[in-house]
Write a structure and sequence with these properties.
By secondary structure, the chain is an alpha/beta fold. It is about 40% helix and about 10% strand. It is globular, with a radius of gyration of 21 Å.
Length: about 375
């Protein structure tokens, strides 16, 4: 479980043109104020520490950041932050060291490859990207290498751009970066799809290229591929939320805390521009329905990768309707097939081809029907 603390909600210093939080911004639902005491009380109710999130959390003034991190370090022994990195300064790095802050940075590549993360003008955008790149170098040299999130789109991952992105990733490995998360573009606006979204074939080509690159890298890992391999072997204890059953009205893997102390959900499931209050009881109707609904009708019926994928993140569902499977289904199927073959060549029988698959599917469905979110590891080991 992750407690995402969002003091200023979705307020940000840049305007990524594909951002899944844009519906909230378009609706004017952007916080301007926060209450430190209410946020701390809400975090304590959730328990287990927190990650500063946004929008852009470094818009919070430095005095209050230090207050939160000093409190987090004293209470939980650690802190984390997810940022675009453009605002990181010397004082931030001092606080990262002093309060054991692990840093995650979202950047889509060097120079022009990051232009979709728009800052108002091309000049300002390139300057922000340069600031982020310098912050990554500084963190590697003076603190702890950050983890990175890279979103794939037409500005950085079409065939002619991929060699540039690959060379940059090799450079990052030499600098000390060890973890990179690859995201497919989440499309909430058809104008974004037309301008930036890769086709199914282009997404597959890009991910296959990164899979190939992963064999050349010695220390840097793309956790996406490691998680998918683990899921094929029935081990979901360390995999991220997109491979688990997620109720979009409770998002149990992400517990949001807003600046006023309100509990909220993962922003990826928020399609209406409204930051809904978190429901108190989780339901798994989506997964029961997907299992029984034909693929031609938006379901997953008969898919041998259902246990591993579960229709993937409801935030990426076909037509923005969480009841459907992900619109990236063919991309994930293709990648799962490739990894399935790798495991077979290594002498390992994937769960997708196991005689136990149907038995485990029925066990998961039975537990979901009771309101219980059984893990795949628990199901396969019992």
């Amino acid at each position: 479980m992750t407690v995402e603390l969002r003091p200023l909600g979705v307020k940000c210093n840049i305007q990524c043109q594909y951002c899944y939080q844009n519906p909230q911004r378009d609706a004017g639902n952007v916080l301007q104020l926060y209450d430190l005491d209410k946020m701390k009380e809400a975090i304590e109710r959730e328990s287990g520490g927190f990650s500063l999130f946004g929008g852009e959390p470094l818009l919070v003034n430095e005095r209050d950041l230090e207050d939160l991190w000093a409190w987090g370090f004293q209470k939980y022994g650690r802190n984390t932050i997810q940022t675009n990195g453009a605002l990181i300064n010397e004082n931030h790095i001092r606080m990262f060291r002093q309060y054991d802050v692990s840093v995650g940075i979202s950047i889509d590549g060097p120079g022009e490859l990051n232009d979709v993360r728009w800052a108002g003008t091309l000049e300002k955008t390139r300057a922000a990207t340069d600031s982020t790149e310098r912050a990554i170098e500084k963190l590697c040299a003076e603190w702890r290498p950050p983890s990175l999130i890279i979103t794939l789109h037409r500005a950085n991952s079409v065939a002619e751009k991929l060699p540039v992105l690959h060379r940059w990733i090799k450079k990052l490995e030499d600098m000390g970066i060890r973890s990179v998360r690859l995201h497919l573009l989440e499309v909430d606006d058809e104008r974004v799809r037309e301008k930036y979204a890769l086709s199914i074939e282009e997404n597959i080509y890009a991910l296959r290229s990164f899979l190939g690159l992963s064999y050349e890298l010695k220390k840097l890992k793309f956790d996406l591929f490691d998680e998918m391999r683990e899921m094929l072997q029935g081990r979901d204890n360390k995999s991220s939320c997109v491979w688990h059953a997620c109720d979009p009205f409770t998002t149990s893997a992400v517990r949001g805390v807003e600046g006023n102390g309100q509990a909220s959900n993962c922003g990826r499931t928020n399609k209406d521009g409204i930051d809904f209050v978190k429901a108190s009881v989780a339901g798994f109707e989506r997964y029961i329905a997907l299992y029984q609904t034909p693929q031609d009708d938006g379901g997953c019926q008969g898919c041998r990768f259902f246990l591993m994928c579960k229709g993937q993140c409801p935030g990426t569902a076909i037509g923005g309707d969480w009841r459907n499977r992900t619109e990236d289904c063919e991309v994930w199927k293709t990648l799962y097939r490739a990894l399935e073959q790798e495991l077979l060549q290594e002498g390992c029988l994937p769960l997708s081809l196991s005689f136990r698959r149907i038995e485990l599917e029925n066990k998961m469905i039975d537990h979901w029907g009771k309101g219980e979110n059984l893990s795949l590891l628990q199901a396969s080991s019992s």
